[in-house]
Specification:
With 462 residues, the protein is mostly helical. The chain is built from 13 helices and 8 strands. It has a 3-stranded antiparallel sheet. The two termini are 21 Å apart.
Length: 462
């Protein structure tokens, strides 16, 4: 995805590097200029999930340090997690998680660590948006306008505000959401990721609600009835007439917020993506996460992202789970949605495979992606509310994934890096970009899953 600074920062203006993830094909130089993202020291950064390249330096970097409320315990909502035991993999020091037992009491302690990390990040990035952080130091690569990931940062700030009950935290979240406003008029299906997740948890904030409505109307106006979807768009570079798995989550909610016509467009958008990304054009059976439309030739699969891209299936599962929970679900062929959920669960290993999938399932020896695992966990928690027969199994599996992330991939205190970093996220395995890093959307979905387990948020809220 793309979006950030129109031009690179001059060498004399240090700022954290930045990059992209889940949307879009390869970026050209023209596409980078259009998106406003530039590479650190002039390097053109491209991501499998195509976000814009970003600039680097210290202003948007997070060094291990304290900050406003960075060690808050939220008035008893959960003590800071200390840790000090040797963890597995990259996590190194991991936090002590309390008794395992059969309940989810540990989730509040882990949520405290993750949301304290949000305060540290906020103090480090200022008005920029964090994208991914170095696993050794916690220093963030940032964007100026947020790219397709800006909504996840705003969402984390809203989660922290709800957790602490602090007016200062709420003001910080509201200000961040205001800075997402230019995306309402950007030509991109990732407005769902940006505007839905950036506003969904902003209960009672009138400006956030107005931004959501504005984005909904703009997306409805851009929907293409002939193609049966909201096209990928041109704002992040690449071919405009695409359908991508990462253009579905959030976008269904956003379109549906535009009224009855929006509800119809949301159903069309979701099912067209399921038609392509699960069955393949014309029922060809090609499970590709991205498709390109060419007049006269119809839909053709894209080579990138590859069919084994684990985050692609995670995004689809999340979108289906959200749709089944939506009040308009009865208008969206719920039987077909339940069938799609079953297919995704059966073929992705979410229920019985490793908690953390490889970034590309075709290369199991390559890097893994904790952000895909976090998305899967949230999707399972949502499905548990619509599948009464398997609700307990789905909830327990989601909790098991989240617990595994906390035990094995979350940084604890006592090292050179900050506590609360969800490590081993893979931004782009193909070009080796940020393959074992903290990713802002990974942090968000980890926090959202933990917040759902603890009751801080409801499964249908975001």
């Amino acid at each position: 995805m793309t979006a950030a600074d129109p031009t690179p920062n001059p060498p004399s203006t240090p700022q954290a590097p930045t990059r992209p993830d889940d949307p879009g094909p390869g970026r050209t130089a023209a596409g980078r200029r259009a998106s406003g993202l530039t590479g650190h020291r002039g390097q053109g950064l491209t991501g499998r999930d195509r976000i814009p390249d970003v600039t680097g330096g210290d202003r948007g970097s997070v060094a291990p340090r304290g900050g406003r409320g960075s060690e808050l315990t939220a008035g008893g909502r959960g003590p800071d997690v200390t840790g000090g035991r040797q963890g597995q993999g990259l996590a190194g020091e991991r936090p002590g998680l309390g008794p395992t037992g059969g309940g989810f009491g540990w989730a509040g302690d882990v949520l405290a660590v993750v949301l304290n990390r949000v305060a540290v990040t906020r103090d480090g990035v200022g008005e920029r948006f964090p994208l991914f952080a170095d696993p050794a130091t916690g220093r963030w690569t940032t964007t100026a306008r947020g790219s397709w990931t800006g909504g996840f940062w705003a969402g984390l700030l809203w989660l922290r505000a709800r957790w602490t009950g602090s007016g200062e935290d709420r003001s910080a979240a509201a200000e961040c959401t205001r800075r997402l406003a230019p995306w309402a008029d950007a030509d991109t299906a990732t407005r769902g990721l940006i505007l839905w997740y950036g506003t969904a948890l902003a209960a009672g904030d009138r400006e956030a609600a107005a931004l959501l409505r504005r984005g909904a109307r703009a997306c409805l106006a851009a929907a293409d009835p002939g193609l049966g979807l909201l096209p990928w768009g041109s704002a992040l570079g690449g071919d405009r007439l695409q359908a991508r798995a990462d253009g579905v989550p959030g976008t269904v909610h956003l379109l549906a917020a535009a009224g009855p016509e929006g509800v119809r467009a949301a159903g069309d958008h979701l099912h067209r993506h399921l038609d392509l990304c699960l069955a393949g054009a014309g029922g060809s059976g090609g499970a590709y996460p991205a498709w390109r439309f060419t007049p006269g030739a119809g839909w053709q699969p894209c080579a990138e992202p590859p069919p084994g891209w684990s985050r692609g299936r995670a995004w689809l599962l999340l979108a289906v789970a959200d749709a089944l929970l939506h009040p308009a679900a009865s208008a969206w062929r719920p039987d077909r949605l339940r069938g799609a959920a079953e297919e995704l669960l059966a073929t992705s290993g979410v229920l019985d495979g490793p908690p953390v999938p490889p970034a590309d399932t075709a290369h199991p020896g390559g890097p893994y992606d904790t952000s895909a695992a976090a998305v899967n966990a949230v999707a399972l928690l949502k499905l548990a509310h619509t599948d009464t027969r398997r609700a307990e199994q789905l909830r327990r599996r989601a909790a098991g994934i989240l617990r595994h992330l906390a035990d094995t991939h979350l940084s604890g205190r006592g090292g050179a890096r900050p506590a609360g970093m969800l490590l081993d996220g893979c931004y782009d395995a193909r070009d080796g970009t940020a393959v074992r890093h903290e990713l802002i959307w990974g942090d968000f979905f980890l926090a959202l899953g933990l917040a759902t387990l603890t009751g801080l948020t409801g499964a249908a809220e975001a």
